[in-house]
Design a protein that fits this description.
Number of helices: 15
Oligomer: single chain
CATH architecture of one domain: 3-Layer(aba) Sandwich
Structural class: alpha+beta
Number of strands: 25
Bound molecules: adenosine monophosphate, glycine
Radius of gyration: 21 Å
């Protein structure tokens, strides 16, 4: 009998999860808010719904005899979907509401690290009112980052020296966050870190963490790292599962931080089962935590899962049952993923525009295609206001993977754009050079 697995979410990340589960022979079901054509085609059953509607998702799972659920986005985690599915006897890759606070509450995660003495934390303060924030800002010796306390879809963070010029602008944004309750109530102010960012994702079974290949995402909308922040325009991994600017001992330090965080969660009474996403800044003093997410990254999932010809189902079962096996067989290859996004994405995305995708030609070019936040109606694919399609190249080197990705991208047409610089030699070199300067 095939294992029945429910995948929640309809983006590129979830399409990659679905494809990996299919390779392991799972019977896949999908609950999503948009008609992702890649997922719809692969799934035995699809339910279009609001992904935070816990009763509806649970009912769909129960009526299909689902044994295991993989929850893609953060919103259903915050809504308590994992708690409810677990109560109904369904195994979950995705933490409970309490454990998901690692992502959903920046105050919780900073305080947890501090309380348990986990390395890699930053100087920070958490505030509910402007007056106490002002005292902190006035006394703080360096540049600050302003973060709304809760979820903002990755768009609420502003950095002094980048988005905010000087303490006055910092305080003005603090006031805006508090007045308009952006991301709930409260604001976190923290030390601005200088370095290069990387992502370490780990499978966690409550006790153990199994790290995946390191990934670097590109948040800025336009080539050359300019423009507004986005959910991520594309990402790459290297064949050694490090990155060209990250050394083995940096990776080990990041793994140690994740391992201690999981131990802290357990001690805290909220064991963490799911994928833990660590966003790190590699500084001159080693990796520091920028934030945690309680799920796979998007696009990062498309990179790492393209390296897993088999084994995701087994790992997911290990996560849900609290017994991860020792290794996850990621291929020693490089990947480059670029997102095709609607014209205007980042400021004023054009939804409802048709996109023409030649799947056969993309496959012939050797690239992988993952559908994201598009809608299929009567055989035509339309953009929504989010990212449309992910294209991934897999090869021995980043440079070759980038070329494969680009060959795939030529077979997609529409009112869309791509950051072509991602994974190109010039940009990767710039990262390496920047890190060399930071290390001094
Ligand atoms: P977050 O939503 O916490 O991932 O923040 C979004 C982006 O803001 C990150 O990807 C970083 O580029 C930047 N950022 C967040 N925290 C810091 C920090 N403490 N120092 C420097 N940059 C930061
Ligand atoms: N790529 C960033 C994220 O998934 O949050």
């Amino acid at each position: 009998m095939k294992t029945k697995v429910l995948v929640v979410g309809g983006g590129g990340r979830e399409h990659a999860i679905v494809e990996a589960l299919l390779r392991d022979g799972a019977a896949v079901y999908s609950a999503m808010k948009n008609m992702n054509p890649g997922i719809a085609r692969a799934a035995l059953g699809v339910k279009l719904l609001n992904e935070t509607d816990v009763p509806k998702v649970t009912e769909f799972a129960l009526s299909n005899g689902i044994e295991l659920a993989v929850i893609g986005p953060e919103a259903p985690l915050e809504a308590g979907l994992a708690d409810e599915l677990i109560r109904k006897g369904i195994g979950c890759v995705g933490p409970t509401q309490a454990a998901a606070r690692l992502e959903t509450s920046k105050r919780f995660s900073r305080r947890l690290l501090k309380k348990h003495g986990v390395p890699g934390n930053v100087e920070f303060g958490t505030f509910q009112d402007l007056d106490s924030a002002k005292v902190f800002v006035d006394d703080f010796p360096g540049e600050l980052v302003v973060k709304p306390e809760g979820l903002t879809g990755g768009k609420g963070v502003k950095v002094e020296g980048e988005h905010l010029m000087g303490k006055e602008e910092v305080l003005r944004y603090v006031k805006e966050v508090l007045d308009h309750k952006i991301g709930g109530a409260g604001v976190v102010l923290e030390e601005r870190l200088v370095g290069e960012e990387f992502t370490l994702q780990g499978f966690c079974d409550g006790k153990n963490v199994r790290g995946m290949p390191l990934v670097q995402d590109h948040k800025r909308a336009y080539e050359g790292d300019v423009g507004p922040n986005t959910g991520g325009m594309g990402s790459y991994t290297d064949a050694d599962h490090l990155l060209p600017f990250v050394r083995q001992h940096d990776r080990e330090a990041a793994e140690d931080i994740m391992q201690r965080t999981i131990a802290a969660m357990r001690e805290n009474g909220s064991p963490y089962r799911g994928v833990l996403y660590g966003q790190f800044m590699l500084t001159k003093d080693g990796p520091k935590v920028i934030e945690f997410n309680a799920r796979f990254g998007d696009p990062e999932a498309m990179n790492v899962l393209s390296l897993l010809p088999e084994g995701l189902l087994d790992v997911c079962q290990g996560v849900a049952d609290g017994r991860l096996s020792s290794n996850v067989p990621f291929l020693p290859k490089a990947t480059v993923c670029k997102y095709v996004v609607p014209a205007g994405y980042g400021t004023d995305p054009k939804a409802g525009r048709p996109v023409v995708v030649d799947e056969n030609a993309i496959a012939k070019a050797g690239a992988r295609l993952y559908y994201a936040a598009v809608d299929e109606k009567n055989g035509t694919i339309y953009t929504t206001s989010s990212r449309s399609l992910g294209v991934v190249g897999v090869a021995d080197t980043i440079e070759e993977a980038e070329a494969v990705c680009e060959a795939g991208l030529t077979h997609i047409q529409g009112d869309v754009f791509v950051r072509h610089d991602i994974g190109k030699r010039e940009l990767v070199r710039k990262r390496v050079e920047h890190m060399r300067q930071v290390r001094g």
